[in-house]
Design a protein that fits this description.
CATH architecture of the largest domain: Beta Barrel
Strand content: 15-25%
CATH class of the largest domain: Mainly Beta
Strand order of the largest sheet: 1-2-3-4-7-8-6-5
CATH topology of the largest domain: Sortase, Chain: A
CATH superfamily of the largest domain: Sortase
Number of strands: 8
Helix content: 25-40%
Distance between the termini: 121 Å
Largest sheet: 8 strands, mixed, barrel
Shape: elongated
Order of helices and strands: HHEEEEEEEEHH
Number of domains: 2
Structural class: alpha+beta
Length: about 300
Amino acid sequence: MSIDISSAPDRTARDVRDTSHAPPATAPRPSPERKLRLPRADVAVLIRRGLLLFGVTVIMFGVFLMLLSGLEHGRSQTGLERRLRVELANVQSPIGGDIAKGTPIAQLSIPDIGVHEVVVQGTDSGSTRKGPGHLPASPMPGQSGNVVLVGRHSAYGGPFSHLNSLDKGSDIKVITGQGISHYTVSAVRRFASKDGSFLIGSGDRLTLVTSEPALFASRRLVVTATLASQPFQSTDHPSKFGANELGLDGDTGGMVALVVWLEAMLVVALGGVWLFRRWNAWTAYVIVVPVVLAVSWLIFDSAAVLFPATL
C-alpha cells in the first residue's frame, strides 16, 4: 500500500502561514515603581508633634535656667564655702599666680542687696555657674588696680540680679587669703555690648559686671566701687584675656559635653522603647522617667554654657 504524499495537507506550510498573520509578540512592560509618599494628614501630624516637642523643650530649658539651675548654684556654693573656709584657716587660699578655673578665691558680701557669695577664678560661662567669677587678667581682690568680678543676672541663682539697686556709698566687703578689704560704691552705669571702657581707668577699685535685661544679655550693667581700705601687696596674674571672659559670650567648649549627653538621651530613648514593648507599662515608666529627667538636666546644664556668662 502506498501513500500519496502530494495529496496530504501541507500542515507545516499552513501553520507557518497562520503564524505569519498573528500579531507580533510584545514583552510585558515593567510596572512603574511606586513612590512612597506620606499622606498629607500624616505630614501635618508630624509637623504638629515636632513643633509641640520643640516648644515643650524650650519651656523646660527656660524653667531650668530661671529656677532649677539655682539648686545647682546653691549646691556649688555650699561646697565652695566649705573649701574656702578650710583654706583660709590654714593660710592656703591662693592669692595670685596661675590659679585653676573654678577655684574659690574670695568671699564677697554686699549687705544692701543680700549678696553673700564665694568668688571663683574665671569669668567664662562654665565658671560663673558656680558663683561670681574673678577675671584672671585683673588684680586679685584687695590689691591695687581694677579688680573685675563677673556674675549672673538671672540663671544659677542670679547673684548679681540686684546690682542696679545699689546706691552710692553702699559697702562691699571681700575676704581673701590676704585679709579683709572694704569697697564703697561710687557709680552704677550701663555699657553697650562692644564698649569695654569700664576696664580702663586709674585708681584702686572693684568692678562688678552683669548683664541686662534679664532674659537677653544685650548690654552690661557695671557697678564701680572704690577701695576704702589699704591695698594688699600685688601678686602676679595673667596679662591677657579672651572675648568670652567679659560676660556677654558663651563658652563653645561646652558643645562637646552637649553632644555627648544628646547621644546618651538617644540611647535612653531606644532603651525605653525596648522596655515598653517587653515589660509592663508602669514598670517601664518607673525605670525610664527618672533616667530621662537626669539626662535632660545634664543636657540643659551643658547647653547653658553656650549662653552668656552673665545671663
